[in-house]
Automatic annotation (TrEMBL), chain A:
<dbReference type="InterPro" id="IPR014169">
    <property type="entry name" value="Pal_lipo_C"/>
</dbReference>
<dbReference type="Pfam" id="PF00691">
    <property type="entry name" value="OmpA"/>
</dbReference>
<keyword id="KW-0132">Cell division</keyword>
<comment type="function">
    <text>Part of the Tol-Pal system, which plays a role in outer membrane invagination during cell division and is important for maintaining outer membrane integrity.</text>
</comment>
<dbReference type="InterPro" id="IPR006690">
    <property type="entry name" value="OMPA-like_CS"/>
</dbReference>
<dbReference type="GO" id="GO:0051301">
    <property type="term" value="P:cell division"/>
</dbReference>
<dbReference type="InterPro" id="IPR039001">
    <property type="entry name" value="Pal"/>
</dbReference>
<dbReference type="InterPro" id="IPR006664">
    <property type="entry name" value="OMP_bac"/>
</dbReference>
<keyword id="KW-0564">Palmitate</keyword>
Automatic annotation (TrEMBL), chain B:
<feature type="compositionally biased region" description="Low complexity">
    <location>
        <begin position="24"/>
        <end position="35"/>
    </location>
</feature>
<dbReference type="InterPro" id="IPR014167">
    <property type="entry name" value="Tol-Pal_TolB"/>
</dbReference>
<comment type="function">
    <text>Part of the Tol-Pal system, which plays a role in outer membrane invagination during cell division and is important for maintaining outer membrane integrity.</text>
</comment>
<keyword id="KW-0732">Signal</keyword>
<dbReference type="Pfam" id="PF04052">
    <property type="entry name" value="TolB_N"/>
</dbReference>
<keyword id="KW-0132">Cell division</keyword>
<dbReference type="GO" id="GO:0017038">
    <property type="term" value="P:protein import"/>
</dbReference>
<dbReference type="InterPro" id="IPR011042">
    <property type="entry name" value="6-blade_b-propeller_TolB-like"/>
</dbReference>
<comment type="similarity">
    <text>Belongs to the TolB family.</text>
</comment>
Length: 171, 459
C-alpha cells in the first residue's frame, strides 16, 4: 500500500495536477473497516486490487515493476530483463493497459545531465518491452532526473535505490 | 520596458546642471572620466591593491523633503536608504571598506558637488561618496552620484540618473557600479537580476518554483506557483523573457515565458522532452537539448520560433551549451567519451573537440561574459566549481563543498554564483565566489534555492 501511495503521489504531482485539489472534502471519509486481528485465520477475501490499478500490476509482477541501474549506466542486465519479461507478460495479458516508464537517477550528478540520463534509462526499459512485443504506443516515458528520489539518504545504498526505471500503469 | 525610463549620463548631467539649487552655489565641472581613466588596479587578481580602500558613504541629500512612492518618509529618508543600498552592495561583495550613512554626518544639499573636506579628512577613509535625490515635476526621481578622493580633495567621477520611484534601488546600484568601476577598472555588475529555482518541502517531494530577484536579493518575486516542477531558468539578454523547464504538462519541456505578459509558449512544438535552455548573447537564438528516443542532442532555434537546426549528432548525451561572448563558439557537455566532459564547437556545430582532460567528470560549462574563462562543475568525488581558460588549461577550483553545481557568471565575469546541496538533508542554497576564490558567501533567499542564472548588466 505504501508503494502505491508513493506512486500516486508521483503521478498526482506530475501528471494529474488537477488532482491536487485545494478543496477540503465536504464529508469526512468513512471509518476504516476493522481489520482482522489475526490475518492468518480465516480465508482471505478474494477481492484484490482491480485490474488496471497500479496495485494489481505490482502484485502480479511481484514488485518487479522497478528495475535498477549502475552509476551512470542505462544497460538492461539479466535481473532487469527478467523483471521486464514479467512486466511484458502482464501487459500481454491485459492488452488494454498502457504504462509510463519513469526514469530516475541518484543525486550525485548535475541536474540537466541527470534529466537526460533518466530519459535514457526510461527508453532502455521501453525498448526492451517493445522488443518483447509490447506495442510502442502503449508505453510512454518520462524522466525525472534526480528530482524525485525514493531513498532519501546520501549514501551508496540510497543512490542504488534511486537509479531506477519505474513502470506505472496509466488508466 | 521599464529600463527605458532610466536616462543616461549625458541627459542626466544636463538635468543636474539645470537644477536651480546647484546653479546657486556650484558650477559642476565637466566629468573628469576621460582624463582619469586609470583606476587603481586593472584586475581582480591583484587582490591587495584596492580591497582595503575605505569609502565613506553618507546619506544622499535632498533639496526639498517631499513625499514619494519610493519612501513613505519622503525624499530625505530615501537619500539615506540610497546610501545604505550602495554600502550593502560594496560590503556584501567584499569590495572596499565602506562605511554607511548611520555612522556618518549627513551632508547638506549645497555641499554635494563641493564637499566640506574638514568633515572627512580625519575619518580614515580614502574615498568619499556624495549624492542627492530630488523629485521631478513628473514624479520621477533624479539621483546624482559623486565619488571624491579625500586626500586629493578632488572629484573622480560623477553620474546622474532619472528613475521611476519604483526603481529607486536601481539608481543606488548604478552608483555602486560607478564607484566599483572607477576604482577597480572592471565593468559594472550590481544593476542586474538573477533568476533561480526556489525549493521547499521534503527531499523526496520538493516543490520547485521559478523566481527572480535583483542582484542584491531585493524585489524578489515568484513567477510560478509550484504546482508543477520548474527547473533551470535563463534570463533573455534584455530581461524581457525567461527560458525554463517545466513539467506543467507532465513532461519536462522548455518554455519561453514573457515577463511582461505572463504568457508562455513551448520552445519547440513536438512531443519530445526538451532540456537545458540557453540564449545566444544577442538574444536572437535559443539553444536547447532534446531527447529523441532516449538520445539527447543540442539544437538551435530562432528566439521567435522557426526552423530548428541540430548541432550535435552523437549516440552520447550532448547537452547544455554556452556561447562565447562574440557568439562564434559554443562550449557544451557530452558523455560521448564515456563520461561527462566539456567540449567546444563552432556556432554552426562544426569543429567539435574535447576541452577537459582533468580527471573526473566536467559538466555545466558557462563561458565568461569577458570571454577569458569557462566555469564548470568538476566532479571528482565531490562537486566543485572550477574555471579554466578557453583552451581547457589552467584549471583552478574556486569552491570545496560536497556538491557545488551549475556556475553562472556576474555580468562582468569577475564573480560566480552556483548552488550548493547539503549531504543527506538535500537542502539547497545559492552561493557566490570571486574569480580569485575569495569572498565566498551564501546569498540570502526566502527559501532553499538552486539553479541561479545571472543576467547581464541593465542598460
Amino acid at each position: 500500500m505504501n508503494k502505491r501511495f508513493v506512486t500516486s503521489l508521483l503521478l498526482g504531482s506530475s501528471l494529474a495536477l488537477a488532482a491536487c485539489s485545494r478543496n477540503a472534502p465536504e464529508e469526512l471519509p468513512p471509518e476504516p473497516t476493522p481489520t482482522p486481528t489475526s490475518p492468518t485465520t480465516g480465508t482471505p477475501t478474494p477481492t484484490g486490487p482491480a485490474v488496471g490499478s497500479q496495485a494489481h500490476f505490482e502484485n502480479a509482477v511481484n514488485g518487479q515493476n522497478v528495475i535498477y541501474f549502475d552509476t551512470d549506466q542505462y544497460d538492461i542486465d539479466s535481473e532487469d530483463s527478467a523483471a521486464l519479461r514479467t512486466q511484458a507478460g502482464y501487459l500481454n495479458q491485459y492488452p488494454n493497459i498502457t504504462v509510463t516508464v519513469e526514469g530516475h537517477t541518484d543525486e550525485r550528478g548535475t541536474r540537466e545531465y541527470n534529466l537526460a540520463l533518466g530519459e535514457r534509462r526510461a527508453n532502455a526499459a521501453k525498448n526492451f518491452l517493445v522488443s518483447l512485443g509490447i506495442p510502442e504506443s502503449r508505453i510512454r516515458t518520462v524522466s525525472y532526473g534526480k528530482e524525485r528520489p525514493v531513498a532519501l539518504g546520501s549514501n551508496e545504498s540510497a543512490w542504488a535505490q534511486n537509479r531506477r526505471a519505474v513502470t506505472v500503469v496509466v488508466n | 520596458m521599464t529600463f527605458k525610463n532610466l536616462l543616461y549620463t549625458i541627459g542626466c548631467i544636463g538635468a543636474l546642471v539645470a537644477t536651480p539649487a546647484f546653479s546657486q552655489t556650484e558650477t559642476p565641472t565637466p566629468a573628469p572620466t576621460q582624463e582619469r581613466s586609470g583606476g587603481l588596479s586593472g584586475s581582480v587578481t591583484d587582490e591587495s591593491a584596492w580591497e582595503d580602500i575605505g569609502i565613506a558613504i553618507p546619506g544622499f541629500a535632498t533639496d526639498n523633503n517631499v513625499p514619494t512612492p519610493a519612501n513613505a518618509e519622503g525624499t530625505a529618508a530615501l537619500g539615506v536608504a540610497l546610501a545604505e543600498v550602495i554600502t550593502a552592495d560594496l560590503k556584501n561583495n567584499g569590495l572596499f571598506k565602506p562605511v554607511g550613512p548611520n555612522r556618518l554626518p549627513q551632508p547638506r544639499f549645497a555641499s554635494i558637488a563641493s564637499p566640506v573636506w574638514s568633515n572627512w579628512t580625519s575619518r580614515g577613509a580614502e574615498m568619499l561618496v556624495h549624492g542627492y535625490v530630488t523629485k521631478r515635476d513628473d514624479g520621477r526621481l533624479t539621483v546624482g552620484c559623486y565619488l571624491y578622493d579625500i586626500a586629493l580633495q578632488d572629484q573622480l567621477v560623477r553620474e546622474g540618473w532619472v528613475v521611476q520611484p519604483s526603481e529607486w534601488r536601481r539608481a543606488a546600484h548604478k552608483c555602486a557600479d560607478l564607484i566599483y568601476s572607477r576604482l577597480t577598472g572592471e565593468s559594472p555588475f550590481f544593476d542586474s537580476k538573477i533568476a533561480y529555482i526556489a525549493e521547499t518541502g521534503p527531499k523526496g517531494d520538493r516543490t520547485k518554483r521559478l523566481a527572480i530577484m535583483d542582484s542584491d536579493g531585493a524585489n524578489h518575486r515568484f513567477i510560478t506557483n509550484g504546482r508543477s516542477t520548474a527547473l533551470t531558468p535563463r534570463y533573455s539578454p534584455d530581461y524581457s523573457q525567461l527560458l525554463y523547464l517545466s513539467y506543467v504538462d507532465g513532461n519536462p519541456r522548455i518554455y519561453v515565458y514573457d515577463i511582461g505578459t505572463g504568457k508562455q509558449r513551448l520552445v519547440v512544438e513536438n512531443k519530445n522532452p526538451t532540456l537545458a535552455p540557453r540564449w545566444s548573447p544577442d538574444g536572437e537564438h535559443i539553444l536547447f537539448s532534446m531527447a529523441v528516443a532516449g538520445n539527447t542532442d543540442i539544437y538551435r532555434v530562432p528566439a521567435t520560433g522557426g526552423r530548428v537546426t541540430r548541432l550535435t549528432d552523437t549516440p552520447g548525451i550532448d547537452i547544455g551549451g554556452s556561447y562565447s561572448p562574440d557568439g562564434s563558439q559554443i562550449v557544451f557537455e557530452s558523455d560521448r567519451s564515456g563520461s561527462q566532459q566539456v567540449y567546444v564547437m563552432d556556432a554552426d556545430g562544426s569543429n567539435q573537440r574535447r576541452l577537459t582532460f582533468f580527471g573526473g567528470r566536467a559538466a555545466t560549462p558557462e563561458w565568461s561574459p569577458r570571454g577569458d574563462q569557462i566555469a564548470f562543475t568538476h566532479i571528482t568525488g565531490n562537486f566543485r566549481i572550477g574555471v579554466m581558460n578557453p583552451q581547457g588549461r589552467n584549471l583552478r577550483h574556486l569552491t570545496n563543498g560536497w556538491q557545488d553545481e551549475a556556475p553562472t557568471w556576474a555580468p562582468n565575469g569577475r564573480i560566480l554564483q552556483f548552488f550548493r546541496t547539503e549531504r543527506n538533508s538535500g537542502d539547497t542554497s545559492l552561493w557566490q565566489v570571486d574569480l580569485t576564490g575569495d569572498n565566498l558567501r551564501r546569498l540570502p533567499t526566502p527559501v532553499d534555492a538552486s539553479d541561479p542564472a545571472w543576467g547581464p548588466i541593465l542598460p
